[in-house]
Amino acid sequence: MKYCLLLLFGLFAAIAHAQTTFSISFPDAQSKVALDGRVLLILAKTNKSEPRFQVSDGVETAQLFGIDVNALKPSQPAIIDASVFGYPKRSLNDLAPGDYYVQAVLHKYETFKRKDGHTVKLAMDRGEGQNWRIAPGNLFSKPQKISIKAKVKQGITVIMDQAIPPIPEPKDTKYVKHIKIQSKLLTEFWGRPMFLGAHVLIPAGFDEHPEARYPLCIFHGHFPSDFSGFSETPPPANMDTTDYSKRFHIYGYKKIVAQEAYDFYKKWTSKDFPRMLIIEIQHANPYYDDSYAVNSENLGPYGDAIMHELLPEIEKRFRGIGQGWARFTYGGSTGGWEALAAQVFYPDEFNGCFAACPDPIAFDAYTVFNLYKDKNAYYSEGPFRRTPRPGQRNYLGQMQWTVEETNHRELVVGTHNRSGDQFDIWEAVFSPVGADGYPKRVWNKLTGEIDPTVAAYWREHYDLMHILKRDWKTLGPKVTGKIHIYCGDMDNYFLNNAVYLMEDFLKSVKNPPASSEVTYGDRAEHCWNGDPTQPNHISRLRYNTMYVDKIMKRIEESAPKGADLKSWRY
């Protein structure tokens, strides 16, 4: 009887809250043809910004629901009701009655017929860096205020009658040039034209010294809209400094960033600064804002395309030396992982990597859990309880959100790894292709249960520490003296955990010894990159100058006999 009463109570509660439905459509003025994609409905409690810009992992996030649509016709409604999975509340049933600001977005997908025989629907990047909020061509509605009433049947109509405009291409300047090539390898894989690009910072005196050939540094990182951290003009003296950085707890950070960019320009053009090329690669793709610069079953041969198509073209066009002793790579976070991965997977092509706060470089410490031994990514489980795993902490160690919360947000933004966010891209890069053509899940996205067979695939193909251990006999002689890793011991995403394991390995390995460098920033957060003399909010802006002395020393020690060490030192 008690069980029956509980069921009835639950049924009555559902009836009281399940009466609201949203009917979302677009007019033929926006598209006369049917569209594929993901319809996202956002409900916010404030109008401080559009609801789409209030979705985050933070505790103050807006509410989000999403459904896939295939061949949605103009004026045809997509229905979001209490059965649709949401974040952070799982159902419309869970929303309290009250006023909300509502907005809908259609994140458009296109169909790819890949070389491997699979047909998939994905959101191709359109110059925005895989961000559904601002992706050109996406449809959206103007925010509207609504009121959800308890025990009242409501049907709310939302019309996506707006479209996000294109993003203009960056323009060349005296020192910053832009290059874009169609990749034969990626075009063949994806079954449609695919491009790689780069922002190239050329040295002072480039035109005046046509005989000079230059070393090249790849500054790896997330999608760069243009070359970052370089400005030929100083910030205005009266620049507003009332902006507050929650991350670094200081006012006026925008001016600090602008000043650092100008200071870099002055160093770059100074008489004694080494002349070299620095490039930031554009390799946004249908899954993320970059490819992780490796070959992948799901993303295609991005590693080879970058190394064998893009770099040779850049070095040809901008007079790069084009040999491994004169190439270096560095970056932070995603870029830190890419810097180390490029050195590991292409050991002869680079003479040093500087990996700051890298994404997990050992999956035994995949942020806060062991991917090979733990059974669940979201919870530490015992016989009588389970504890949520933290996903992010602040500088005091206080948890901001959990691994489960981040993954559930991604799941609502896009099924089949189509969120364009962090855990989804790790899966897309590291996993084998599933039977449906999309990446195999390394864990159940809803429950967190880990699939050990997929984890084993990750280990053999992308666990950088495991690969170094496994192949040290052949890799060791090629990477000794080249590996430099830096990480704050209070990294917000617990990335220091994997660095500790890598450090232990690099210290212990013999024949040859690694001759590596691993250092930590005391109480430093994410993006600490190796300078203990500066606070994190400054050092993170100096990637392009921090490692120059070490690069020059490495060149002097390792350049082959007869190498050009003079034409670029004017």
TrEMBL record:
- Entry-linked InterPro entries: AB_hydrolase_fold, Mycobacterial_A85_antigen
Signal peptide bounds: 1-18
Q: Which UniProt keywords apply?
A: Signal
Q: Kindly provide the name given to this protein in its UniProt entry.
A: Esterase
Top-level taxon in the UniProt lineage: Bacteria
**Gene3D superfamilies on file:** alpha/beta hydrolase (3.40.50.1820)
